What does this fold into?
Amino acid sequence: MSPRVRVHDARHGAATLLATGNVHPRVAMEILGHSKISVTMDVYTHVPDALKREAIAHMDRMLGRRRR
It folds into this structure.
C-alpha cells in the first residue's frame, strides 16, 4: 500500500523543491498562491540537510579551511 500524501504535504514538497532549484522566493509564492512571502518561506519551505552541509563546506572553502 502506498503512503497517503495530502495536498498540504505536496505543497511543502513543492515549496522545498522550488527553493532547492534556486527559484526566487517571490516566484515560489506566486506558484503556491500565498499572499505573503513569509508564509512560503517560514511555513512551507524546508532546507534539506544536504544543502546545509553544502553551505557549510562552501563557507569553509571561503575561509580557507579544509573539510576533515
